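Re: the request from the purification team.
They wanted to know what the chain is likely to look like in 3D before they choose a buffer screen. I agreed to run a prediction and write the result into the notebook, where they can find it.
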Amino acid sequence: MEKQTKNKHLIRKIILIVLGIGILIGLIMPLPFYAEVPGMSMGLKKFIKIDNKKPDVDGDFNITAVTMYRVTGVTAIMALLNPHADLLTDEQVNGGETSANSQKINQIYMDNSLNSAEAVAFKAAGIEYKQEFNGIYVMAIQKDSKFKKYLHVGDTITKVNGETKQSTIGFQDAIRQTKIGKKVQITYLHDDKEKTVSAPTVSITSTGKKVAGVGIMLTDNTTIESATKVSADMGELGGPSGGLMFSLELYDALSPANLADGRTIAGTGTIDEEGNVGEIGGIDKKVISAGKNGAKIFFAPYLKVPKKYLKYEEKGMTNYELAKKTAAKYEPQMKVVPVKTFQEAVDYLKEHPATSKAS
């Protein structure tokens, strides 16, 4: 009887030890989730150079960012308790791509964002420039693509059947002239090395029709050529959300305007070459980081969305609505300004100079 009691105690201890080890492993092992929290908010002077010099701007245009990190059981619990954190799935963060490919895609978006900002600022400041079309970036590759073992995310397609094209549409038209399932020759740059490969096209749907394609998601690879040289070293920052602030910083530095007027101005939003501002993710965290860094003005993309489509927006609100709600609760000293275009942001700053100088 005494032996049975000892055995029960031993079994109980073993079970508790195993459970304890299991719980400990569960708390420290990485999970397939990421925490999104407020990141940095810093003046673009730290990142951008114009003709190898810091931009001559009286004040700061701050780029804002979120920070992402993969969670463990412990950090997931901490994120759930943090009112400024959200837990996201790997699919939401990387879109089904590897982390390495996701970083490449974000770098492409960042480069394109800066190019578009240059075009907008140069045009507004009356500076001559020319846009060079270098080909098309490979952003993703379909599972059924016959080029899957050759092309990689971040590669640039430069020729189709030995011919260069001057637009994405030109490349697409050249590929679609090939019958579905017939070989097409693609020349591309991988790690700055030119390669050429031939493989059959696959069937893709375009404007409701089945046409020949190589099975990739793409975007333009362009550069801006001008006597005025702009460069940016953004470190590990990526994505397109800095476009609006890039364009404001460059325009302020290149024109007689004094938009910043001694102030710290933050904001976010994509920019296209026509100066249109687009929505981004994580704007509530960006409002928090901007406020903590002293910004009193925050530009937020403005988009009218019918109520029935709001469910597709982040947290059921447009960028502007979410930014305004966040600022009202956590950063009431900051004015959230809705903008649809670069020009609207410029006009606002011209019409609302620094308080000490306002009449």
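For the purification team: The longest strand covers residues 30-43.
Please add any questions underneath this entry.
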